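ok here's 4-hydroxybenzoate 3-monooxygenase, seq below lol
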Amino acid sequence: MRTQVCIIGGGPSGLLLSQLLHKRGIDSVILERQTRDYVLGRIRAGVLEQGLLRLMDEAGVGGRMRREGFEHAGTLIAYGEEMFRIDFVEHTGTPVMVYGQTEVTRDLYEAREAAGGIIEFEVEGVTIHDADRDAPYVTWRQGGAEKRIDCDFVAGCDGFHGVSRRSIPEDARREYEKVYPFGWLGILSETPPVNHELIYANSPRGFALCSMRNENLSRYYVQCSAHDKVENWSDDEFWAELKRRIPGHVAEGVVTGPSIEKSIAPLRSFVTEPMRWGRLFLCGDAAHIVPPTGAKGLNTAASDVHYLFSGLTQFYELNDAEGLDLYSERALARIWKAERFSWWFSQLMHRFEDQTEFDRKMQIAEMELLRSSEAAQKAMAENYVGLPY
Ligand code: RFL
Ligand code: PHB
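and the structure came out like this:
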């Protein structure tokens, strides 16, 4: 088998890149370790920036998102019984879109299938060969058979635990990491959301987030111990804890119901540099992770896809490698700013076990600044809706 771009990972990054390339007549093949249903069963991001919306439109898959997604013009920040709103549209002229990653991924799968795109599922033992030479190839096992594909480029879109980043020799990359001493316990429930905009809450018992997917599908999170287990939390215990962490008048309005999904996500900040090694390009979670507080994970994956897609089209259409040569630098410049924002917002909103009285006072002062300063709100809004690319 031969293709122009071999894409490892059929998550949102890999699918979006493949569909964008297809629109420009560039051929790709996706190798995905899991089944389609498994990928679609992962409940993840919910907030999309304008940059991702534009890419979805350009890929020809923005229709359902534009019809069924919800524009949010602002967000609420609660601390203790206090609550204030940051208006994104007033400060930046731009809203965000609430439309689940599951739906983004479903729309992309359907478009790839309709266009006859090749996605190999349940691949095992993916190995990248000769990425530092002119003729790379990728091998894998599938249904007991050994397979091989030759290509011009490899796009490593295989997430944090994928094989692509580890294929770059250790002495050719540098990793930066911060692991937070807690996780997020999240539930999805078929109940109306407590509010029409998201509520991020800092309470003495820890962080909580009230989010949603649609009018009858709510997504809630509470900060939990990094060692906690989903089995330790009944639905009733979850709802009771959520209500203790949000202002009383909001808690009164929470409609509870059985959870249809419950999971714990660890919190991590991580970046690997550079994001390119020869003909291998890392994209999305394969290269960087943010804590979910800033809702930036999927959105940073999208900006990587944008830079890589424009580098590949420049290469194939103009025979010019400049965009590919600048890929890592351009992508990382935006990534580090999203890392900073996600780290800052996480520091502001969570309870840290080792927090001193002084640290707590700093957190309160920072929160007061954000509540009262137009400039601070504008900076938050600019970052939340997404820096330009
Ligand atoms: P993914 O989604 O992890 O997809 C990678 C794919 O690669 C496959 N794979 C392999 N395939 C072949 N061979 C191998 N060796 C492979 N190893 C792995 C995997 O099966 C998978 O299908 O990475 P991608 O495409 O870069 O997308 C990144 C996003 O999924 C991620 O950044 C976001 O979900 C993060 N995130 C959020 N991002 C936002 O922008 N807004 C949000 O509101 C938001 N909320 C969240 C989040 C992530 C969360 N969790 C669970 C970590 C909320 C949560 C709770
Ligand atoms: C979500 O709805 O899953 C969500 C929303 C905002 C975040 C993180 C997750 O910051």
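fwiw Residues 327-349 form the longest helix (23 residues). kinda neat tbh
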